[in-house]
Amino acid sequence: MKLIVIGHGMVGHKFLETLFAEAKQDAHFHVTVLCEEPRPAYDRVHLSSFFSGTTADQLSLVAPGFFEQHAGQVDLKLNAQAVAVDRDAKTVTLADGAVLSYDKLVFATGSYPFVPPVPGKERNDIFVYRTIEDLEKMTECGARSKSGVVVGGGLLGLECAKALRDMHLDTHVVEFAPRLMAVQVDDLGGRVLRRKIEELGVNVHTQKNTLQIVAGESATHRMEFADGSFLEADMIVFSAGIRPRDELAKASGLALGPRGGIAIDDACLASDPHIYAIGECASWGGQTFGLVAPGYEMARIVARALIGQEAAFAGADMSTKLKLMGVDVASIGDAHGNTPGSRSFQFTDERKQVYKKIVVSDCGKKLLGAVLIGDAAEYGSLLQMMLNDMELPESPEFLILPQLEGGARPALGVDALPASAQVCSCNAVTKGVIADAVLGGACDIGAIKSCTNAGTSCGGCVPLVTQIMKSEMAKAGMAVNNHLCEHFPYSRQELHHLIRVGGIKSFAELLHKHGTGLGCDICKPVAANILASTWNDFVLKPQHASLQDSNDYFLGNIQKDGTYSVVPRMPGGEVTPDGLIAVGAVAKKYGLYTKITGGQRVDLFGARVDQLPAIWEELIAAGFESGHAYGKSLRTVKSCVGSTWCRYGVGDSVGFAIALENRYKGLRAPHKIKFGVSGCTRECAEAQGKDVGLIATEKGWNLYVCGNGGMKPRHAELIASDLDEAAVVKLVDRFLMFYVRTADRLQRTSTWRENLEGGLDYLKQVVVDDRLGIAAELEADMQRVVDTYADEWKNAVEDPAVRQRFRSFVNTEGTDDNVVFMAERGQIRPATIEERRRTIPIAVA
User: What positions does the domain NADH-rubredoxin oxidoreductase C-terminal occupy (predicted)?
Assistant: First the structure.
């Protein structure tokens, strides 16, 4: 079957994903995808993050290798505009004259930004907010502007206002209606929302009808309003709503909806049985849908129809929960109380700027809608009550009233939800799917996300998903606990607390006070790690040495042949010529294999255990110390050359990287940690792929956290921007110590972040805003680690008892004859088993 998909946005790509995920292996499809833009599908929901450092590649929705995996089945054409559809001939004509035939055609053309017919709208430096190309033009204009105006106070308008504010412009929002987000919130909610937005530095102008745009006196433009007032700004962005892209369908004779959009039935079929329409270009029951979740559902229905499965579109819930410029905003169902006989309960706290309203049926037993501004904690429960037609408690007003001391707010028990309850509307994940995933072995939120996709889009459902997961685990008889092992009925976080508060200094003391038995290979290294990060004792002290794993015990990474690698610390990747000569001399003397690591260090491979102290001594004499490449600790701080050498550099990335590495080099953590420091937004140090990343801008440093490579790469997220170096150090101190205190065993910062129910917002509140009131304590803990730092290699070679451990055999000074090497590219490598049998090795270590 030959399919043509016109449009490759979020909904168009969801169609492709569903089609190839659910089609049988022998299904014969050839899909041609026509994409007007120069790049494949990307995330428009989070488009504003482009202005805070997220790249176009990071916004991409196309999994690496997707089109390569389906080569021969999918042909993606970029910069390809469809200009005509001949329904009789079943062909699509492109702007370049090419004519393509189809058996089935899918319109996924989306929408276009509505620009009111205002005289002057064609002036330079006036934009729409829709594509990455639009954002690139806005970025260029923003660099030479001082002020900006967004025309439109809806969802997209406020997102756009955030973008202008992120560019440090004096930002204004102009709205024709009497309140912001007029579709989603009522008058009282709009008043609270306006006050919160204005407190964030955005000027709000409502009930403004723009008559014309002319040249300004103090800025590039002047907007003249019908009430006689005016507003001047250097940049204007129209974000006044969207209209369906239906012009091509209209020209082909397809029926349209009463308000535009391609008319479709429950199967998403247009008025031609060979043509479908999905997403914002489609009109179902006279209604178009501007949210991504209904578009995704349409995409799934059409994909399943094409592979022979029956499905029907039954409309969509337009409830939404967003965080606009840091302000929680949620709207559920009939938020305005338009249902005949409906009644509402409202709560307003003008001091905290919180507004909540629920709309209930005339009998008071069913929830019809809700509005939440400033605090949307109840969104998940209220949404499920409405979607599943659940009976309300006797006093429904307590669902939104603050919890009184000693009293409990009525809550939705997840057991009351039917298996068919849709928990994640973005990805159509039901409670039943989550329950099946738990039975299949997914027992943490990260695993649930991976196998069901729940919570991977907007993230608003994560708290409810977590509750369902734990409930289903309990039903299945699974242990819903976070015990470290059989010897300690505590999580790693709880053990950390017990050690720190109780002043416990050894594993024996910990076991005596809080554990049972003798300990195991799980709890011993964890306890050793916590003791090291809390008290910063030398890890090979007698009371600690037996707890360590092989790498920590020998202060080096053990390799496949039983030898060890040695990585001297080179802070920030900087090393003098004399230092390089010294490293080379050591490698040559001991016959070691040398390689530059991905973290800008020199790794020396092939050292026998008995050689380690001598190698360390020579490196220490040359000014080096342990690089902690073996520990669950700070490994490297990667840097570019920055403003010192690079013509693009705006920050001293090398100097700052060295300072950061020297500060945090002794810190033990639940998992290894890597930093990156880039001197400009060209990002040569790959800072956004690190646990802690810094990127220099003209206004200071942008701080990113919780990124990593590995089996599941994750981009770091911006947590604070425009920081001086002192502010960076303060926030990194807090972030690292909070991670050390609260992460699970062997949990990377990325996984830890994924499992924080409050997500990035909660992390910001703790680290940046000090919501828990522990910032000073975290900083003091870090300073204690910094002040007590000692080089572990130096401690090892200077302590005779420790040095005595570094022997191949306990009862002889001999070496291990099984360690043999072969020559390759002028260096050595471990010999394979077959090579040992048939050749004479070049060296016996």
Answer: 319-386
Cα angle for residues 319, 320, 325 (degrees, 5° grid)? 155
Type of residue numbered 364: G
Question: Which residues are documented as binding site for [4Fe-4S] cluster?
Answer: 640, 646, 680, 684
231 vs 253: CA distance, rounded Å: 44
Give domain status of residue 801, yes or no.
Answer: no
Q: What is the pLDDT of residue 405?
A: 42
Quick check: pTM over 0.70?
A: no
d(CA 732, CA 211): 50
Please check whether residue 830 lies inside any domain of the structure. Answer: no
Q: Of 676, 665, 777, nearest to 730 (Cα)?
A: 777
Q: Which of 107-116, 136-145, 262-271, 465-474 has the lowest mean pLDDT?
A: 465-474
Considering the domain architecture, whether residues 85 and 23 belong to the same structural domain is answered as yes
Q: The domain spanning residue 444 has which CATH number?
A: 1.10.10.1100
Residue 779's region, left for phi above 0, alpha for psi from -120 to 50, else beta, is: alpha
Residue 649 sits in which domain range? 633-772
Helix (H, G, I), strand (E, B) or coil at 284: strand
Q: Which residues are annotated as a binding site?
A: 640, 646, 680, 684
pLDDT tens by residue, 787-832: 999 999 999 999 988 888 887 665 556 666 667 788 888 888 887 7
630: its two tokens: 């073996």
Q: Is residue 327 within 8 Å of 158, Cβ to Cβ?
A: no
For the annotated binding site for siroheme, the residues are 684
State whether 284 and 353 are in the same domain. Answer: no
